[in-house]
Design a protein that fits this description.
single chain, mainly beta, Immunoglobulin-like, 4 domains, 5-stranded mixed beta sheet, 5-stranded antiparallel beta sheet, about 35% strand
């Protein structure tokens, strides 16, 4: 009853009336004139008691949180799914039924808030000042009276005048959204020419994010699950790929050519192998069919250092020196997929391309003009003059409105490992202007253990010729990820892309993953296995900055109880999905050898926990089977970059149909929702694409779906094929029968549209519909219509409301019935009272045969009808009813 009849005045009326009945029952039964007297004085009595009996204001509390998977639920279980986090600085305000502000607060860093509202409720609660880039997420419950600790409502909610917990709001960001268990794609390498022996080998592999098994699983086969992959794009069609970027707006993968010695390019845009366009080719792949739908060419990426006649030696020193200096490096999309940012390793410039055409969107920007300062002030050989050859970019990351690039000082000229530095620069995504001051930098001359027994893993300066050493780690700064404000960097061993894993050019690789913690742009590098006070790594191991490494299980054990066979097994490719607990990296020998001593020359993934630094999960992409005579590169950087195929953040629109009791065009607290109203969503062709029926609170919503709506009579209208982004629709309230006698809109008119006089967020609390005569596609008639243009991905809109009121000229309704015993005998002189929504009290008594009648009660309102008799009991003795027409046969039966 509180939802229908819930403001302070109305509740006080009920309490007043109960007292009124108790005190006067005897008098009223014996003296009709007294009944008339009390009835005439009831309004004054109600007003006095209402003012004195209003309860104290309540405390409203809840949480505002980031909903990474867009399900509207506060998820904390973790594992491989997202862990939602609190969002601070959101303003929470309370407004009473008169529209007065009754308190405001802001959410804390963990998202929680507590608001002690003043005055008398009920209240309208509004959430405003959302942080930049955030929009409301989907709801998981209605928007009245709070919910559970994991539920969320819309940005406008209604509560009563009591303590109300769990008034929660879920938020989302389009660039952080990802569904649970998305498909992931990784590039895999095949030896030789792309039209050679392994031309038909797949070089793009897809798999579910939840693939593989826990790192301690003793069943080796579980590491290979799933064994099959749906992508079949071959070496013959795209050749050797490193970077992959997924465009969810058109469901396309963009795969960039990469110079890896001993593995040939694809045919490029002209379809002819060994032309100058091969090194700069970007292939657009349909992941549903595995087919290449377009091929673009990156400007100035023209050098092809392969020897197409001999991929076994592949131009020796020339091929070695070309690694990391030619073809394409990192690649990433901006938020709306209108720009594809690509790093040209040959001219060391960042380009912005049009994903639809491949055309360059303005001038590129070169990193050779950058000064690479050394932290602490001592000079390096990377800053000026001919030493520009030491400035080598690779990593590209778009994040929250900016592009970030990774640049390496290779120390190629000085051959001094102390000059090895990694830098991050911020780039304007529109102008491509680089901020000349590095966002961050770190030295790379820390200790790293062994790449192979007897082979040091310490980073070395770049060299231009083939090296005799079995391990010769040279860093390439290939990956940047940002995780809850922290920084994760992927370093790939250049030697692994310059050599084979077997035969005379065999080399052992040793990449790495580093973590820096703090607030965004102000980080402290991990030290001795700890970062920002977190980590469980063994310390003082001689591996990593400060003699320990945060992501410490990046090794491969020689025997179940022995020392490490490889201390560093990472391949420098990282993937972090916002809200998840893990960073995923490609690496050699992903299965712990303590479980399977034969799991060597393999390539796969490990899932490193960002809180502990430990490996929680692993997945094997290929089984090298000893490395000899295999198409794969075994331990020599056998996999390229990772890309998650996160869907575009879905959208949800709708909100509430309510009875505007005072016809002011504002959703005042205490004004009830109208249930049972049918709502249609029409597309621009005036075709119904969604149907919903308002629930008990008057709420309705439209969401995207991949199937026809199985329950079009509930409050959630499922739009088969999804709700389009930036698309025009109309929300119409055009069921003719809703206006018939006894139906929810009978006798009601549309309230004022777009009222702005109220305090708070106007658009969240007003009515948005206008009457339209004979809208195309609807039945003949005049119906309320809300024109809608949806936003971009993730732009949920819960402000499409419509109010109705009962016109003052509406005919009154009559209420009549009979009060009787169970045997059917009428009961005389039972007092019957009716209280209107505004507190007006009507009292009558039953006749000799038990009949009663109220006449000319204004229709369209919710009233309370109660009985009182000394000798008889009724269960219930009070009933709440909405008058839309005459109410006859409203009978009562005594339990006595």
């Amino acid at each position: 009853m509180s939802k229908l009849f819930g403001n302070a005045r109305q509740r006080a009326v009920l309490l007043t009336f109960a007292l009124f009945l108790t005190v006067t029952a005897v008098v009223l039964r014996s003296d009709e004139s007294h009944a008339q007297k009390f009835e005439s004085q009831s309004d004054d009595l109600v007003n006095v008691l209402t003012d004195n009996m209003a309860p104290e204001a309540g405390t409203i509390s809840g949480r505002v949180y980031m909903d990474y998977n867009g399900n509207g639920t506060y998820d904390t279980a973790g594992g491989l799914n997202s862990v939602d986090t609190g969002v601070g600085t959101v303003t929470v305000s309370a407004f009473d039924a008169a529209g007065a502000a009754r308190g405001t607060t802001t959410s804390a860093a963990d998202g929680t808030f507590s608001l002690a509202a003043t005055g008398s409720g009920p209240y309208r609660i509004e959430f405003t000042t959302l942080p930049s880039g955030y929009t409301p997420s989907a709801r998981s419950t209605d928007s009245v009276l709070g919910g559970t600790a994991t539920d969320s409502g819309s940005t406008v909610q209604f509560v009563n005048n009591v303590n109300t917990p769990n008034v929660n709001l879920a938020l989302t960001r389009a660039d952080d959204y990802c569904q649970d268990n998305p498909t992931v794609v990784v590039s895999r390498y095949a030896q030789g020419a792309s039209n050679g022996t392994y031309a038909n080998n797949a070089v793009l592999y897809d798999f579910p994010y939840n693939s593989g098994t826990t790192y301690t699983d003793t069943t080796v086969a579980n590491y290979d699950s799933p064994l099959t992959h749906s992508l079949t794009t071959t070496a013959a069609t795209i050749g050797t790929i490193y970077s992959i970027a997924y465009n969810s707006s058109n469901n396309r993968l963009y795969a960039a050519s990469y110079f890896k010695r001993h593995s040939g390019f694809g045919p490029g845009a002209d379809g002819i192998l060994n032309n100058t366009d091969d090194a700069g080719a970007i292939y657009v792949v349909n992941p549903t069919t595995s087919a290449v739908t377009a091929t673009y060419t990156l400007p100035n990426a023209t050098t092809n250092s392969h020897d197409p006649l001999d991929y076994a030696t592949d131009n020796a020193d020339t091929g070695w020196n070309a690694t990391g200096k030619t073809s394409i490096g990192g690649m990433d999309f901006n938020d709306d997929f209108s720009r594809l940012f690509v790093m040209n390793l040959q001219d060391r410039s960042l380009y912005a391309l049009n994903p639809a055409t491949g055309a360059s969107l303005g001038n590129s920007v070169s990193v050779t003009t950058l000064t690479l300062p050394t932290p602490g002030g001592s000079a390096t050989n990377c800053s000026t003059g001919t030493a520009n050859t030491n400035k080598r970019p690779f990593a590209v990351k778009y994040y929250r409105g900016s592009v970030y690039i990774g640049v390496l000082c290779t120390a190629e000229t000085s051959q001094n490992a102390a000059n090895l530095y990694a830098y991050i620069f911020q780039v304007d995504p529109t102008t491509l202007a680089i901020n000349a001051t590095p966002l961050w930098s770190t030295q790379l001359n820390y200790t790293r253990g062994l790449a192979d027994p007897g082979q040091d893993a310490e980073w070395r300066p770049w060299v231009t010729t083939v090296q005799a050493n079995f391990a010769f780690p040279q860093p390439m700064f290939t990956s940047i990820e940002f995780e809850n404000g922290n920084l994760i960097m992927g370093l790939r061993d250049r030697t692994g892309d310059s050599a084979l894993d077997a035969g005379p050019d065999s080399k052992r690789t040793a990449g790495d993953t580093l973590r820096a913690c703090g607030t965004f742009g102000s980080w402290t590098l991990e030290s001795n296995g700890r970062c920002g006070g977190t980590g469980t790594a063994p310390q003082t191991t001689g591996q990593g900055p400060g003699s320990g490494e945060f992501y410490h299980q990046d090794d491969f054990c020689l025997t179940p109880n022995g020392g490490n066979y490889h201390d560093e097994v990472n391949w420098g490719s990282l993937m972090y999905i916002a809200g998840r607990q893990h960073v995923v990296t490609t690496l050699l020998d992903p299965i712990n050898r303590a479980i399977d001593s034969g799991a060597t020359f393999d390539g796969g993934l490990r899932y490193f926990n960002n809180n502990t630094g430990s490996t929680d999960r692993a997945y094997r992409i290929y089984n090298g089977l000893g490395g000899v005579g295999q198409p794969d590169f075994g331990k020599a950087n056998g996999l390229g970059a990772l890309s998650s195929m996160c869907a575009a953040a879905p959208i949800e629109i709708g909100n509430r149909v309510w009875k505007d009791t005072n016809n002011n065009g504002v959703q005042d607290p205490g004004e009830p929702g109208i249930a049972g109203v049918q709502v249609h969503l029409y597309n621009s062709s005036n075709v119904v694409v969604g149907t919903a029926v308002t629930d008990a609170n008057g709420e309705y919503y439209f969401v995207g779906s991949t199937v026809a709506d199985p329950t079009p009579t509930d409050s959630i209208g499922q739009v088969n094929g999804g709700l389009g982004f930036s698309t025009t629709y109309q929300i119409r309230f055009d069921r003719v029968s809703d206006r018939n006698s006894g139906q929810p809109l009978n006798g009601m008119s549309l309230t004022t549209k777009d009222v702005t006089a109220q305090l708070g967020n106007d658009d969240s609390s007003d009515s948005d519909a206008s009457n339209v005569t004979n809208p195309t596609g609807s039945p003949a008639g005049i119906f309320p219509v809300i024109p809608v243009t949806t936003g971009t991905a993730g732009s949920n809109n819960h402000t499409y409301d419509v109010g109705f009121f009962v016109p003052a000229s509406a005919a009154g309704a009559n209420v009549s019935g009979r009060v009787s015993l169970a045997a059917g005998n009428g009961i005389r002189n039972v007092q019957v009272a009716l209280v209107e929504a505004d507190g007006t009290l009507h009292v009558t008594k039953t006749s000799s045969f038990g009949y009663y009648r109220f006449e000319d009660i204004p229709a369209g309102q919710t009233v309370v009808i109660s009985l009182s008799a000394k000798r008889y009991t009724f269960n219930p003795s009070t009933r709440v009813v909405t008058l839309t027409d005459d109410l006859a046969d409203f009978d009562w039966v005594s339990e006595d």
